Amino acid sequence: MPTLNYLSLLILSSVLLTACSKQVQNEALSNDSRATQITQEGVPGGVATQVEEINAVVSAINYATSSVTLEDAQGHQRDFKASSEMIDLQRLKVGDKVNATVVLEQMIYLRDTATASTDSAADILATTPANAKPGMLVAESVEIIAVVKAIDTTQQTATLEFGDGTRKTVKVRPDVQLKTEHLNRQVMIRLSSALAIRVQPE
Known about the structure:
Blueprint: H1 4-13, E1 32-38, E2 46-62, E3 67-71, E4 77-81, E5 97-110, E6 135-152, E7 157-162, E8 167-171, E9 186-199
Antiparallel strand pairs: 1-2, 2-3, 2-5, 3-4, 5-9, 6-7, 6-9, 7-8
């Protein structure tokens, strides 16, 4: 129901979903980024994906917290949290030149009344050849559920209520017709992030 731009605000404010750890160092690294949006005319929601390609050097590794600090050519540093399954972290070393890919995917849809309440996020899969340089992947996914509490056909807005009781009024795409049947329907907001780190050959 809300526009995809609103998802960007959600993903920035959500401490549950981020490739970077909750450490002090969290500067923006120089990167090449691209974004795509997929929507279907007349259908609320859609999918937005942002991909960042980062060339950096490993400046620190904290094995106790499974975090990696990357530094770009300008000296900006950013911490990334690795998952416990990333055993390749032990093969990464300070000074390695790496290419990191950060993917943020934001999907939103109006749940059909007949849909079961056990929707789950799609799996994010990746494999690394046994003899390859470390090619590590960490993926996270979280779902946020909101309920449509009000619509304004004049302003083309919908008011959503989240689980903590807070309400947000958001713009709805002009091609989506607001209907009274949308009231009290659930809006599913699925946020996924993935981080892949590959060591550049010397």
